[in-house]
Amino acid sequence: MPGNISCDTCAYYYYDEDYDGYICDMDIDEDDFVKLMQGNYKDCPYYTNGDEYRVVRHQM
Q1: Are 7 and 24 in contact (CB under 8 A)?
Q2: Does residue 33 contact residue 27 with C-beta atoms inside 8 Å?
Q3: How far is CA 46 from CA 8, 31, 38, 58, 60, in A?
């Protein structure tokens, strides 16, 4: 994964029992996928933090 963002914390990254592994559930078009795999993006443009409690911890 390019940049500093980890797929492990992304809301679109989940365990799929059919594939027996983790996958990205974001609908990425082919051009963006190629750019992402070639490292043309500093960070994934589709990354969304999956931490539901991030805002609450920030307010504390």
Answers
A1: yes
A2: no
A3: 13, 14, 16, 23, 28
DSSP E strand stretches across 1-60: 13-16, 21-24
Q: How much is the pLDDT for 41?
A: 76
Query: Tell me, what amino acid is at 22?
Result: Y
From first to last of its 60 residues, the chain has per-residue pLDDT tens of 445 567 888 889 999 999 999 988 888 888 888 888 788 777 888 888 877 666 555 565
Cα–Cα–Cα angle for 6, 11, 15, rounded to 5 degrees: 85
Return d(Cα 49, Cα 7) in angstroms, integer.
9
